[in-house]
Amino acid sequence: MANNISKDTKAVRLLGGRRFVHAHLSDGQEAFTKTIDIGAGEIYTQVSDIPNASSKLWHSGEQSDYLIVSNSSGENILRYWHKHRLTPSNQNGDTNGSSYFFLSGSELTNIAPSDISSLQQTNFISNKYIQPADAANNADALGYNVAVYVGGSLTSQEYSFDYKTGILQFNSYDPGGSTVNLSAYQYIGRTLQDDDLTNPASAGVVAKSKLFNAFEFGATASFESYAGKSSYSAGEAYSSYWEVEESRGIILGSEMVHTNGLLQDSGSTNDYIIYPSESGGSTVSGATKTVIEFTYRIPNTTNSKVKVTYLPKD
Fold it and tell me: How far apart are CA 294 and CA 257, in angstroms?
């Protein structure tokens, strides 16, 4: 029987962003997926809540299957899977070796190595998250190493399990028609993507200090010129242009404008409109400047103060 685990081939495929299912397949026959390339959804932000000792784990055995490990705040961190039945690759056999997928639900139809099922489970916890004294324990003995069963018995056969992609491979062994089951802990806590405030679907909580520090407070606008008539208001005889220097640009709509201590209302029928200088709305030049066009004339420009608080662009 051919060897099904090639460390060199596996390393190259994972570095290239492909899964490793069978050693006999070419690189092009394996599916692209997240392996080592890091996305926001792959960065765990609750690592400190992962129990780091066997004494802190209590999920073990059939009665605990699919139960949740929570932190002191009641947030879900880990899920325990007990002897979950794995789904075989449709290319298993004496020639190709035997590989299995960790799918949720009851989907047991053999699947192709190039297919990524919507039921595929990933992000399992390895023993690097537990203290050295408990590092040898498997998931059914209050640890994080996977426990692999063939035909109902804990196997002694050589295998490799990818904790990131949820794929099990046997080396020079074919379980044949025997069922293969696996016990493991899976990370289900928050990731950086969940805490990303730019993501509309994020459940992240806005930290007051983070939001506060993002603003630029009290930037002083400079007087540029008067206009014979406001570009945006026929009801006023004069308007005035002021500009704010900001190399990153301003997120329009985030600003608060105060003139001589009075908060101004935005909009062409109110106190001012605001736009980037390069938009051509006025004669103010400079790509780093933002123009505030007031719909009225601000007198005594030497002593008048226009202060702007805003969010700069990234």
Answer: 11
Nearest to 106 by CA among 97, 94, 122, 117: 117
**Sheet strand arrangement including 222-227:** 222-227, 239-245, 289-294, 272-276
Q: What angle do CA 257, 262, 223 make, to 5 degrees?
A: 55
How many residues are given for the chain?
314
Whether the per-residue pLDDT at 247 is higher than 80: the answer is yes
**Contact status, residue 82 vs residue 103, Cβ threshold 8 Å:** no
SS3 content of the chain, % helix, strand, coil (to 5): 15, 30, 55
Q: What are the backbone dihedrals phi and psi of residue 251, each rounded to the nearest 5 degrees, phi first?
A: -75, 105
Q: Which residues, 6 or more positions from 182, have their beta carbon under 8 angstroms from its beta carbon? A: 81, 83, 84, 86, 100, 102, 146, 147, 148, 149, 161, 168
Q: Per residue in 166-205, pLDDT tens?
A: 999 998 899 988 999 999 999 999 998 887 655 555 555 5
CB 244 within 8 A of CB 290: yes
Ranges of each domain in the chain: 7-187, 213-310
Structure tokens at 168: 């099990």
pLDDT at 53 exceeding the cut of 90 = yes
Residue 228, C-beta contacts closer than 8 angstroms, at least 6 positions apart: 237, 238
Element (H, E) at 154: strand 153-154
pLDDT band at 219 (very low <50, low <70, confident <90, very high): very high
- CA–CA separation, 256 and 178 (whole Å): 69
Count other Cβ atoms within 10 Å, centred on residue 141: 15
